[in-house]
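[Q] Does anyone have a clean structure-token version of this?
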Amino acid sequence: IILNVSDLWPLAAIELNALKSGSFSHKVSLFFERYIYSKATLILGQSNEIIAHIKIISPKKECYLYRNFPDHLDTEINILSNENEPIKLFYAGLLGVAQGVFELCQKIELENLNIELHIFGDGAEKFKIENFIKNSKSKIYFHGMIDRSLLLEKIKQYDIAIVPLTKRIFGSVPSKIFEYGSLGFPILYFGGGEGETIVHENNLGWVAEVGNFDSLNAVLKDISKLKKTELNQMKKAISTCAF
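[A] Here you go.
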């Protein structure tokens, strides 16, 4: 039995306040977590923090780090930026509680910046995001859920991918980091933890302190000063790093 662990449960549920610590459900979940780990022949974890957590529970268990690298050889795209357009920031994915895209829309400050935010996806916060955009004059655009092949075609015209989390979740490394890195997109990471380290150490873009919108807006001010030629150079360097 080979077990792949992408996120730590029930720990992530506790950190997201979806499960009460010490509750009956929590105790049952902890039992199943230990039971499943004990029955696995070996375990693959998608972050070093996941491996460290498993080793605490099952010290002798054979574990390997297994990053979620995508293969885009068949869908490689040219993402050179247009100098005459604003810098286009985009989010594509689940619009759920953990991502906090609705709060991002409320607190991001784009009014005096040469930046737009484009959102793709579906989830629990979809209608709140749509209503907020309809009732505000912010430079935020919602495109809904579209097919993956169409999305890859659509984001050719964009410049920077934003990867947010509402809070630092132990063990979590969003696969979007590797997804966008392989496509050559600079990343604005707003999630803390091991993902932050990966973006920083590999020069994949920018890091803002998780949950700190003052930090995020300060980074956006710096980004807005960039020329498209500078962004194009970043894209080429990131693409080379990913491959």
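[Q] Thanks! Anything notable?
[A] The first helix runs from residue 11 to 15.
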